[in-house]
Amino acid sequence: MEFDAVVVAGGGSTRLGGVDKALVVLDGVTFLDRVLRAADHATTTVVVGPVRTTYREVEWAQEDPPGSGPVAGLAAGLAQGNAPIVVVLSCDLPWVTAEDIARLVSSIDTHDGSGLRDSDGRDQWLAAAYKRSSLEHALQRLGDPRDQSVRRLTSDLDLVWSEPSRSGDDVDTWADLDG
User: What global pTM score does this model have?
Assistant: First the structure.
């Protein structure tokens, strides 16, 4: 099934000491490029955040105002592309794979979306595939997307979740790389 990808990459990375998470290197590849490789089959890929060098061409967007959170970033990214499914990923998911994304897209079925759970069983809303129409309606219901939580945005959506796996693990601290 055709899908677009929106990669949220505009956070401040305060728990990493202000280091740009997107540019952290693991096994010779930046986090951002690892996520972009996983989303290689997207019709349109939009990275929301400052423009950086990536291994392939992508579209760029910026939340308004910059730094106003992942929901504002998601809204900015969603304005590009038109595939019926949108895979939403944060740039700090270095273990997500193309196979994970294919499973998410194929498992939506009659649900609004399908997401990954991290190794500890936590739902990862920024590691999920959503029906574009469901996300657009959720954004309309929410109103102003600035400084809103993704949990609140998706609270009324019918989502299915994967079994816990490393693929859903994000990196918020340096210790997360050891996990």
Answer: 0.94
